[in-house]
Design goal:
This protein has 718 residues and is α/β, with parallel strands linked by helices. It has a domain at 584-715: Golgi alpha-mannosidase II (Immunoglobulin-like, Sandwich), CATH 2.60.40.1180. It has an eight-stranded parallel beta barrel with strand order 12-13-16-19-20-21-22-23. A six-stranded antiparallel β-sheet has the order 24-25-26-31-28-29. Strands 4-3-7-11-10 form a five-stranded antiparallel β-sheet, with no helix packed on it. A hairpin with a 4-residue loop joins strand 1 (12-15) and strand 2. Helix 13 (500-519) runs parallel beside helix 14. The longest helix has 20 residues, at 500-519. The chain is elongated and about 90 Å long.
């Protein structure tokens, strides 16, 4: 087969209409062979071609006879010196880190390891068996796609409502989605799926990892899989498991069609991405890609023992963000997903690991510097999971301007408050108003906080109110995995119950969590399935459960349907009332020309909270008046931002509390919007004058209205 010198850039396999340019970075390799396969079931490569050129540490060649759908891998030659960090083994076919599509998935066998399994020297030994019959293969793609008149939604961040979803888990059991589309990109963009998103009121879906992943060998041996997908093999390739066709090139087109459909419905697409580690694990892991291409360059190794890996992730390895080519790999991947796949942003798994310049987390590290100056990536949504497992890795509130953060302190505070813990009311108020203690001093806004009560990682909302303890036995790890703590309240009854009183209390607690989430300043994130009362039967770490435990169930009983209706109405309230999604923090100062403050915290007597009240451990009830006329500013698009005045009452105590409502004008009144003790959000028509008895563990929301039935905003000319 003919081979020409080609070009060192772009890295990866690039078809230009006449042939394919192949380029692979390896700083320490001595030779790179490109291996071409005729079919996915081929036991050996049909051609093995030595790349003829090396430029700037990139090995490259151009093959004029190659076309899209060609399957390929690499054999990289170099030193086998594990104690020096080098793990080259040309007997092992390795995946192109820039592979745009996967042509064949991994099949496990001892041949997938660079060392001899069972050898007493462990990873110091060398396995010279060929793995070509079982190694994963990349596929060349034709990137052409007709986007037509697609327009990106460009949702202002303070108006975002995020829905965390798993591509397969969302639609696998959906009865209104054609069977062939269930569990796929097409299923997520189906008419039934979009109808659900639109009815619910979300405007951004955050997809759990769709980069092609590896199912860990120990899981496969137990009949399980890495369902969540936090075990990346290819940073550019969409996972073929979510493709109707199951083929690599077609999975790319299916992903693009999904994005196009969601954008047409006004819904943004955010990807949960895992750049902190790879599927190759620690020093005893397999040789799949980066390890066999240039282990020293791509991974953080222990300084004085480079045989071993620095593990800030709990997954065995950490990518080497100190190396410019590793930074390039990540940046090229991010830009590819924005420019070619048209996604709107990213949620970075264990993002603190990306900030580690040496050992400590550096929020002004090279990764952030590069992101901020990039004309593409600086304009998309950037969401950090602001922690990793290393020393000093918990960095909530410390990411730079322009970043949003999963606010773990919000989650913990809200769970603690609704459990009825003492001494939480002050922090509850701070979190409800956007966590100014974390973000305001660094010139960030309330929407820097991505608020959540539950996420994929932990209990589902239904289980949060039903279980004290995790029940992860199905994972095969003797229930040792997963978080051991559950800061919630389950009515004193563990697990499912037929007692109507217990069910009623749990439903109210669910409504409390959802109401609080969407009444808070910041970006709310709803865990996919919580609106459906999905249960994992107490499993709080269902990462390996690709079955009905994780798949969402859509056949709702009347109670579950009522809860879905409640969630929908609360989200609608969030969207309707500007005072619930302010682009700036409350100041707590009197409004111009009045004695009223933009935010006023009240004790049950109707008086402003005193210093003693804020610090009294026994206080579990509080009210807050949010002045809709206080927003004397414009939103991010320059429009006026004025709305209704709301009164929110929270009672985390077990007993009923009578609240004295704040005074108002003679021509106004407090209209009850909803009370979680009563259930559904409806037009109550109830105007409360002075006092309101709020039942134990419940939330009530009031809107200030004009006596003639109009809203306060309308009466003020808004």
């Amino acid at each position: 087969m003919r081979v020409w010198p080609g070009r060192p850039y772009p890295l990866g396999a690039t078809w230009d209409g006449g042939g394919v340019n192949f380029s692979l970075f390896s700083q320490h390799a001595t030779r790179v062979d490109l291996c071409l396969f005729d079919a996915p079931d081929a036991q050996r490569e049909s051609y093995c071609i030595r790349l003829p050129e090396q430029t700037d540490l990139a090995w490259h060649g151009y093959l004029p006879d190659v076309v899209p759908s060609q399957l390929y891998g690499y054999r990289v030659h170099g030193a086998w010196e594990p104690e020096q960090g080098h793990r080259f083994n040309s007997a092992k076919l390795v995946m192109d880190p820039y592979a745009k599509a996967i042509g064949r998935d991994l099949r496990w066998g001892d041949e997938m390891f660079g060392y001899r399994i069972g050898d007493q020297r462990e990873d110091l030994s060398l396995d010279e068996r060929d793995n070509a019959a079982m190694a994963p293969l990349a596929s060349v793609i034709d990137s052409a796609f007709t986007w037509g008149d697609e327009s990106r939604p460009a949702i202002p961040r303070h108006k975002m409502v995020i829905y965390e979803a798993h591509v397969k888990g969302f639609s696998q059991l959906h009865p209104d989605i054609p069977e062939k589309m269930r569990g796929t990109y097409a299923g997520l963009a189906s008419e039934a799926a979009i109808e659900h998103f639109k009815r619910l009121g979300i405007n951004a879906v955050e997809l759990m990892p769709v980069h092609h992943r590896v199912d860990d060998r120990h899981l496969v041996d137990r009949g399980l899989s890495n369902f969540w997908g936090y075990n990346t093999l290819a940073f550019f390739a969409p996972d073929t498991r979510y493709s109707m066709s199951g083929t690599g090139p077609e999975s790319v087109r299916e992903f693009k069609r999904m994005v196009h459909a969601l954008h047409s419905a006004g819904i943004e697409v955010i990807l949960d991405v895992v750049y902190n580690h790879t599927a190759e694990g620690n020093h005893l892991g397999p040789t799949l890609s980066l390890r066999g291409i240039d282990n020293v360059a791509y991974y953080r190794l222990v300084h004085d023992q480079p045989r071993y890996y620095m593990d800030y992730t709990g997954c065995g390895n950490t990518l080497n963000m100190q190396h410019p080519r590793v930074l390039q790999l990540i940046m090229d991947s991010l830009r590819y997903w924005v420019l070619e796949m048209h996604v709107d942003g990213f949620r970075f798994d264990l993002a603190s690991a990306l900030a580690r310049e040496l050992h400590e987390v550096d929020k002004l590290g090279a990764f952030f510097d590069i992101i901020h100056q990039d004309p593409v990536l600086s304009q998309v949504k950037l969401i950090a999971e602001p922690w990793d497992l290393g020393e000093g890795g918990y960095q909530v509130g410390n990411f730079p301007v322009g970043w949003n953060e999963w606010n773990g302190k919000y989650r913990d505070t809200m769970r603690s408050f609704w459990r009825g813990d003492s001494g939480t009311v002050s922090e509850f108020a701070t979190r409800l108003c956007g966590s100014s203690d974390l973000y305001e001093s660094s010139n960030r806004r309330p929407y820097a906080s991505v608020n959540f009560v539950t996420s994929h990682d932990g209990f589902a909302l239904q289980d949060l109110v039903a279980y004290n303890d995790k029940h992860n036995e199905a994972n095969g790890e003797q229930n040792r995995d997963g978080d051991s703590h559950n800061l919630s309240w389950n009515c004193g009854v563990e697990g499912p119950s037929d007692d109507p009183a217990v069910i009623g209390l749990r439903e109210r607690q669910k409504r409390n969590f959802v109401a609080t989430l969407f009444l808070s300043q910041g970006i709310p994130m709803l865990r996919g399935g919580d609106e459906l009362s999905h249960t994992q039967l107490g499993n709080n770490n269902a990462y390996c459960q690709d079955n009905e435990l994780s798949w969402l169930h859509w056949d709702l009983d009347p109670r579950q349907q009522q809860f879905l209706d409640f969630v929908t109405k609360v989200i609608e309230l969030k969207e309707r009332e500007p005072v619930l999604h302010r682009p700036k923090f409350f100041q707590g100062r009197p409004l111009r020309g009045t004695v009223l403050k933009d935010v006023q915290w009240l004790d049950p007597s109707g008086d402003e909270m005193s210093d003693e009240g804020w610090h009294a451990g026994f206080v579990r009830s509080i009210g807050v008046r949010l002045d809709g006329n206080s927003i004397q500013e414009t939103d991010e698009r320059g429009g006026p931002l004025v709305g209704n005045t709301l009164l929110l009452l929270f009672n985390a105590d077990a007993g009923e509390i009578e609240f004295t409502l704040p005074p108002h004008g003679d021509e106004q009144g407090w209209l009850l919007e909803f009370d979680t003790a009563a259930g559904l959000l409806e037009d109550t028509g109830v105007v409360v004058e002075e006092h309101y008895a709020l039942q134990g563990r419940s939330v009530a929301v009031f809107r200030l209205i004009a006596r003639d039935g109009g809203t306060e905003a309308a009466s003020n000319g808004a």
